[in-house]
Amino acid sequence: MYRPSCWSRNVRLFDYTYPAVILVMASILVLSTGNRCRSQENAQITGSRNRDPVIAECLSGGHKAASEGNFDEALRTFNACVEKHPNSAEAHFFLGMAYLQKEDIDKATGALKKAVQMDPNNLDAVATLGKVYSLDKQKLSLARELLERVLSFAPLKDDVRFALARVYELSGEKQKCLKEFQTIFVNEVRYGIYHFEFAKILIMDGEKNEARNHLDKALALAPDFEPAKRLRESLDKGSKGSGKPTEE
Fold it and tell me: What is the pLDDT of residues 226-236, one digit of tens each?
């Protein structure tokens, strides 16, 4: 199962083959939802352009096929869309993701390169092409250039930062690799507030045991998060707490 921003822990950290599998798994989510999961930083560079409804309609059949697990049909649909709209960066992007799902790295690379050439501001295409390049030891410098470019606009993309850390390690730049991991671990703290707020919702629903679990996760990420500490203590004392969302 694909887990957003999470890489398999059942393999050696810098095994040279497993990232290809991760790219394939990630492509399933993108293909089936038709969502490029833009961050706020990504939106700033790509802008709020409206999607061409004709192209969106052409792509929709591929997304539907992918959501039903029919990736061969998705690939055929995206190929047909590229033939009809050869100047659509979005069509080339999804075609590249479909090829990744089929583990055809060469064709995926070709489609993604076209997407980036047509729309250099599509950070998702740039990031994915960078990750694909990172699978080839001869293209680590290209991977580095693309991944660093994405992070200059979208510094909170931890999946991209992880890929860049891996490129640094494979290039023998251990200190840069460690620095990227340290940044990822610092960024994790921001998720503590989400666990905290979700815990309060669970408390209102009477799910106190599950609320404790999320408060523990919040405190694991941010040990000095006082509101989470107080709410956790109140649960231990048998108090329901206020359970009301706060601005803390």
Answer: 999 999 999 98
Residue ranges of the chain that CATH labels 1.25.40.10? 18-172
CATH superfamily of 18-172: Tetratricopeptide repeat domain (1.25.40.10)
**Each residue of 119-136: b (16+ CB within 10 Å) or e?**
beebbbbbbbbbbbbbbe
Binned at pLDDT 50, 70 and 90, residue 37 comes out as: very low
pLDDT digits (tens, 9 = 90+) for 75-109: 999 999 999 999 999 999 999 999 998 889 999 99
Q: What is the mean pLDDT of residues 192-216?
A: 90
What is the pTM (predicted TM-score) of this model?
A: 0.69
DSSP letter for each residue of the chain: ---TT---SSS-TT-SSHHHHHHHHHHHHHHHHT-----HHHHHHH--PPPPHHHHHHHHHHHHHHHTT-HHHHHHHHHHHHHH-TT-HHHHHHHHHHHHHTT-HHHHHHHHHHHHHH-TT-HHHHHHHHHHHTTSGGGHHHHHHHHHHHHHH-TT-HHHHHHHHHHHHHTT-HHHHHHHHHHHHHHGGGGHHHHHHHHHHHHHTT-HHHHHHHHHHHHHH-TT-HHHHHHHHHHHTT----------
Quote the mean pLDDT of the chain: 80
Instruction: Report, as an integer, the average pLDDT of 35-58.
Output: 57
Percent of the chain with pLDDT over 70: 76
CA dist 206 and 213 (Å) reads: 14
